[in-house]
Each structure stands twice: as C-alpha cells, then as structure tokens.
Amino acid sequence: MKSTGIVRPLDTLGRVVLPIELRRVLGLGPKDPVEIYVDGDYILLKKYQPSCIFCESMEDITTYKGKNVCASCIDMLGK
Fold first, then answer.
1. What is the residue extent of each domain of the chain?
2. Per-residue pLDDT tens for 7-61?
3. pTM for this model (two decimals)
4. SS3 at position 67
5. Among 12, 17, 27, 47, which one is least packed by beta carbons within 10 Å?
C-alpha cells in the first residue's frame, strides 16, 4: 500500500473529504458509489464496480431483482 501523505480530519458526522487530485486519478465524480473495506486497522476505499454474483465478472452485467448477473451466467442458468 502506498501512502499519499495526505491527512484529513473527520467532521462531526464522521465524513472525510477526498482531495480532488485523488478523485481525478480514480475517476470518481459526484455521487459515484465507493465500496468500503476493513482490513485490520486499515479502512480501504474502492470505486464500486458491479460484478456478477456468481462469477464476479464485470462484463455485460444485468440487474435482476436487485442482483447483478453477467450474460454468460444468464446463459448457463437457462440451460
């Protein structure tokens, strides 16, 4: 993991502002979803990318009843 050297305080509601430079590098825009992971003492943020609930592919994703499924898994389920 690489340190950016950027330190930001939490506000009274527990929010932190990501610097514009990081948002640009990661391609994050207003209202873009971000996934939050915890690994020991670390909090990791990742740009959310929907993936298939079966194979975790990120290509040709369709949402069915609130679940993400890729086209190849839909084909396999149809057989």
1. 1-48, 49-79
2. 999 999 999 999 999 999 989 999 999 999 999 999 999 888 889 999 999 999 9
3. 0.63
4. strand
5. 12
The helix/strand/coil state of 79 is: coil
**3-state SS, residue 74:** helix
Please name the residue that has the structure tokens 């979803």: 33
Under a CB-based contact definition with an 8 Å cutoff, are residues 40 and 32 in contact? Answer: no
3-class DSSP assignment, residue 72: helix
Residue 78 amino acid letter: G
DSSP count for the chain of H helices, then E strands: 2, 4
Place of tokens 């391609």: 27
| b/e 5-41 (16+ beta carbons within 10 angstroms → b) | eeeeeeeeeeeeeeeeeeeeeeebeeeeeeeeeeeee
